[in-house]
Amino acid sequence: MRIAVASLVLLVVAGTVAVQYRARAEDSPAEVRFGYFANVTHAQAVLAVANGDLEKAVAPAKLTTRVFNAGPSVIEALFAGEIDVAYIGPGPAISAHGKSRGEGIRIISGAAANGVAIVARNDSPIRTLQDLKDKRIATPQLGNTQDIAAKHYLKTTLGQSNVNNVLPIANAEQATMMARGEIDAAWVPEPWAARLIADGHRLIAEESALWPSNQFSLTLVTASPAFLEKHRETAVKILAVHKDWTRRLQSEPAEQVQPLSDAILALTSKRIAPEVIADSLKRVTFTTDPMPSTLETMSKWSFDLGFSRDEVSIKGLVDLSALQAAPEPSK
Hints:
- The chain is an alpha/beta fold.
- The protein has 2 domains: 215 residues, Periplasmic binding protein-like II (D-Maltodextrin-Binding Protein, domain 2, 3-Layer(aba) Sandwich); 98 residues, Periplasmic binding protein-like II (D-Maltodextrin-Binding Protein, domain 2, 3-Layer(aba) Sandwich), CATH 3.40.190.10.
- The strands form 2 sheets. The chain has a 6-stranded mixed sheet with strand order 2-1-3-10-4-11, with helices on both faces. A 5-stranded mixed sheet has the order 7-6-8-5-9, sandwiched between helices.
- The radius of gyration is 22 Å and the shape is globular.
- The protein starts with a helix and ends in a 6-residue tail after the last helix.
- The relative contact order is 0.18.
- The N terminus is likely disordered.
């Protein structure tokens, strides 16, 4: 009888160990596919990829990265099953949530707030935001966060009947087009706004001035629900790195200027001078707070502009459980 009981105990223990082993094995994906932009407003991702922190965090999984220009392209990749975790803006995240009926994306952390400026060509007559009416204004991509914000302002505040004057132009191409006189202004994230200003163009306003309390969420960390469910511990490790870089950018931004300049050069083949990076950092607030009020506002704007057929509820979109499980960075 004792032998039988002992055997049963051993079987239970062995079974428990086997289940735990399978859970660990299932949590370690063969590959983590990671998307982000070559922007200062995605600085945690830019720096964590460049110095190898993210690669170490997800090991033994292989880290595969893709650099995008704006959020809608990321969403296409996410829906195609090509991306697991990505940094994007509120507009595309809300659009993806609506199109997938709440099944396609989760916001797992905030990353940056503010960090968007409106810059006018130096020889244009534009002096204030009101002068933007009917002018040729560049935004990074159709339906991205800046595109939605610019079009909402032109329609609701300036009273334009249409917004055909808002042109989707990749961030890195805007300086050349402005120099040629092909666009009048750009509604653009950092460091691309600072680069235009360094070229002698005119800072008209920061978008934060148009928001309550002068702040809005600009960059979010997102994941596919399937990845979050199957590989939660990997998501926690990614967010631990994200928390650490957020702390560094909050407490010692000057030390990240040269690394950001070098990393953006490697990603875009375009050098943005350290002094330009330093200027751009003054307009960005790094945070892990996704600021749900921004999401609610952007949902309304997306609906008003026709980017979504319905005003999307953000219920179920934000899941901060992995962020809360991630260890706090050491100081």
